[in-house]
């Protein structure tokens, strides 16, 4: 448990060697935009929104999966980073079909919120308009692949927190998709305990409670936080 | 307005110094224009500062020359839209994508997801399968414009200067945008004024 000293946005910070740049920044009150990161679940560095500049390293590094090291000089905001973040967000919007006006998550969506925070008032890339399905076979929840950004938060909570292992990623590139069990309709996936953790974790309108209509999908993450605290600190407390 | 009404005193159309404003309606539900009208008494202020030269809310058939600012509602969906947007671009200094259909192509572009032949499939669904009587496809060359194979946001077709998203953009957002334009500023939408849906 050795402490490292580093600089984030000109601020001197000391952090344990086991933590990531994101953890260190958060502790120092510096906010780095994130999308695939979810507190309490291991990070995979899937979305590239948390990229930061580290002095002496030419490529940008994901803050959520890069461990701190001695003397690091980190910038979390710059012209270059803003350019890449906006580009990443625009590509996420162009890749699938995001029709916010008719989406269950409109007004509560983390993808939307990030887009606004980066000043995205339009998408410069041509939209792909792919054909994707909606899986409404589950008794409680629905999955609209049109709005999935493949952050894999649902997969990680399903395996790591619930331990059910229902959700997985199948395929690569533009064909990559979230599947349930052996690539079968969610309603027929025997391993699913109907716990709803994936729905709680999803940052977009891709996973939703059945019956929600436009703008109605507000997520309650307190249950997830409760379970994570219980696992990590062995304390069954809700605040 | 194009044809001057001599008896009219306020506002004075064509008066130098007035901003020549236009609004146009493409593939959208008219909701953005409704929201524009929702600016209520602020419309009186606007009326004193602009010369409204083309809009679905006034009776002008031909898009005029030398327009300062044009707000475009709707996506580019059919051949008429395509022809008019090029004319508007050529005759307008500042083009604004007004509302989500113009900015993202929004709901009208859902048909793009059906891939090649989507224009035929949606017509088939609406006018043949959905018809209660007299099923037939509307085909009247010169009157009913043909659908484009792909619905596009305005900036995919012509250069757009500013974006005013929202479905529809609330009246306050349109107002804050217009105030900046009328003050000769570069309009910027921040905070709750930058929002889709
Ligand atoms: S998931 Fe978010 S960005 Fe996508 S359509 Fe829904 S509200 Fe819009
Ligand atoms: S409801 Fe629970 S068990 Fe079922 S897929 Fe979601 S996280 Fe996994
Ligand atoms: S369904 Fe939601 S949580 Fe799962 S990968 Fe897609 S966007 Fe992420
Ligand atoms: S939050 Fe770090 S890559 Fe997504």
Plain-language structure description:
The complex is a heterodimer of chains A (239) and B (197). With 239 residues, chain A is α+β, with helices and mostly antiparallel strands. Chain A folds into two domains: 3-77, Ubiquitin-like (UB roll) (Roll), CATH 3.10.20; 86-214, Alpha-Beta Plaits. In chain A, 24% of the residues lie in helices and 16% in strands. Chain A contains six helices and ten strands; from the N terminus they run ββαβββααββαββαβα. Chain A has a five-stranded mixed β-sheet, with helices on one face. A three-stranded antiparallel β-sheet of chain A has the order 6-7-10. In chain A, a hairpin with a 6-residue loop joins strand 8 and strand 9. Chain A is globular and about 55 Å long. The two termini of chain A are 29 Å apart. The model of chain A has no long low-confidence stretch (mean pLDDT 95). Chain B is of the alpha/beta class. Chain B has a domain at 19-108 and 148-185: 3-Layer(aba) Sandwich (Rossmann fold), CATH 3.40.50.700. Helices cover 29% and strands 19% of the residues of chain B. Chain B has six helices and seven strands; from the N terminus they run E-H-H-E-E-E-H-E-H-H-E-E-H. A five-stranded parallel β-sheet of chain B has the order 2-1-3-5-7. A two-stranded antiparallel sheet of chain B has the order 4-6. Chain B is globular. The model of chain B is unreliable at 1-12 (pLDDT under 50). Chain A binds chain B through residues 93, 97-103, 106-107, 112, 115-116, 119, 121-124, 126-127, 129-132, 146, 215, and chain B through 97, 100, 103-107, 109-110, 112-115, 150, 153, 155-156, 160, 163, 165, 167, 189, 194-197. The structure holds iron/sulfur cluster (3 copies) and FE2/S2 (inorganic) cluster (FES).
